[in-house]
Specification:
Layout (H helix, E strand, L loop, with lengths): L4 E2 L4 E6 L5 E7 L9 H11 L17 E4 L21 E6 L5 H10 L9 H8 L16 H16 L4 E9 L2 E2 L5 H17 L2 H8 L9 H14 L10 H9 L11 H16 L6 E8 L13 H5 L8 E6 L10 H4 L3 E4 L2 E4 L7 E2 L2 E2 L4 E7 L9 E5 L4 E5 L10 H33 L1
Antiparallel strand pairs: 1-2, 2-3, 3-5, 4-5, 6-7, 6-8, 8-14, 9-14, 10-11, 12-13, 15-16
Length: 442
């Protein structure tokens, strides 16, 4: 495969598959002197992983990351304190697959001749033939998005040092849309949702709160812990929330399962998703992702315009459309309605609106970057579908029997955050380098 890398100066290369030994994120361009622990990466990964309720697949992958290279193994000289800090070499994260039991593999084997409509399984067979990694859909599975989230965790930590924040949420699901809300309020609700998810995650407790994996441990020590966790996976369950806990979340405006910052809409979305699921079908939705604090002037015309780079989020397997700012609505606006007019207030440039989504001419304006992703329904459904036998080229019928998500929109928002962080990190390095060059030649 030739398309598993993204970036010019912050380069992310991913590998692995749904039922292979695991997945890998390989990052070049991480600055030296960054301290990041596996626990920090995991708090991002747990937002995406399956097995967290009725809106996700029952597959229970712990998604425990291992930092494999890119940091100093010990203080390099007497008097230096740089153990565990990045050293400029490629930063590599491993994510082992732990919930891939034989009975699930067998379910794929007996249905792999009949590709799932709406899924990559037919096209990938045409490209790779019978060598195609079709157990669990390989790299075409949503499993691969864990590699993006891991890389995004590193990018987010660096961006934070430049006061750039990124947050995403479910704006629409199963045809139910939430009303507009101030971004500051949305940001706080997303933060609270993440905090709740982290504190209630059993793997977070077992692995990090109980100290099974700690900074400074060797790879083989961590591997032994992960082997132990693998045996525990079938019995690790997320404890059901009491009504008191649900009520406490509701007081904060937080839904226990769906990261939608408008509680009434989240409840309606949840009910509609389950109703569609119970009918054997699946549903889609819209994720909105926002970046604040991005400096003006980032972007590299002509072929690396930042709005074009945001369109790269189509690389998230389930995303079928990406729009910035007013997006498709611009076709119905006049110039005077669409233009984000400017004025000076108290010595600062203020815009009348943000129809441009924070980017004009491929360059940032200093406004919030606002991107929306249209997420398709899960292709794997429990209804009979017309398909073919891809080997004998005869007609067939398929009724899915594998583990599946009734919707993917509830798990895409962490991937959207991470992908935007990777894009912005790459462009921030280019932007700072160019500005420094300009200063040097003045």
């Amino acid at each position: 495969m030739l398309g598993c890398r993204y970036g010019t100066l912050f380069q992310v290369t991913v590998a692995g598959g749904s039922y292979q030994e695991g997945l890998t994120t390989h990052i070049q361009g991480v600055p030296v002197g960054l301290y990041i622990e596996e626990q920090e990466i995991y708090t991002e990964l747990l937002q995406r992983k399956p097995g967290q309720g009725e809106l996700s697949s029952p597959r229970r992958e712990p998604d425990i990351p291992i930092i494999y290279s890119g940091v100093n193994a010990a203080d390099t000289m007497t008097g230096f304190h740089n153990e565990g800090y990045t050293n400029g070499t490629p930063f590599v994260i491993l994510i082992p697959n732990l919930d891939r039991h034989f009975e699930h593999i067998e379910q794929y084997r007996v249905t792999n001749r009949t590709p799932r409509p709406g899924h990559a399984s037919y096209a990938s067979y045409l490209k790779y033939g019978h060598w195609d990694d079709s157990i669990g859909a390989g790299i075409f599975s949503g499993r691969y998005t864990s590699t993006i989230v891991a890389a995004g965790a590193v990018a987010k930590k660096i961006l934070k040092k430049f006061n750039i924040d990124i947050f995403a949420y479910v704006k629409e699901a199963a045809g139910v849309s939430m009303p507009e809300m101030p971004y500051d309020e949305i940001k706080e609700k997303v933060r609270s949702f993440k905090e709740f998810r982290t504190n209630s995650d059993p793997i977070y407790t077992i692995v990090y709160k109980e100290g099974r994996i700690r900074p400074g441990m060797r790879f083989l020590e961590k591997a032994a812990v992960i082997a132990e966790i693998e045996k525990m996976v079938p019995d690790i369950t997320r404890p059901a929330l009491s009504q008191k806990e649900i009520d406490a979340l509701a007081e904060k405006g937080i839904h226990p399962v769906l990261n939608c910052p408008h509680l009434e809409s989240a409840r309606a979305m949840y009910d509609k998703i389950l109703s569609i699921r119970d009918a054997g079908d699946s549903s889609g939705g819209v994720v909105e992702v926002i970046a604040t604090g991005v400096p003006a002037g980032m972007g590299e015309p002509v072929f690396l315009k930042l709005d074009g780079e945001m369109g790269r989020m189509m690389s998230i397997g389930t995303v079928k459309a990406v729009e910035l700012g007013a997006g498709m609505k611009v076709k119905d606006l006049t110039g005077s309605q669409n233009n984000d007019q400017m004025e000076i207030r108290e010595g600062r440039v203020v815009f009348s609106n943000n129809n441009a989504g924070g980017i004009t001419g491929g360059l940032t304006t200093g406004q919030d970057i606002v991107v929306r992703l249209a997420v398709k329904p899960t292709p794997t459904i429990a209804k009979p579908q017309k398909t073919i036998d891809k080997v004998s080229l005869t007609n067939a019928e398929l009724a899915a029997v594998t583990r599946r998500d009734p919707t993917i929109v509830s798990r895409v928002w962490p991937v959207a955050e991470a992908f935007m962080a990777i894009i912005l990190m790459d462009h921030l390095i280019m932007h700072l380098g160019y500005q420094k060059l300009c200063e040097a030649v003045k």
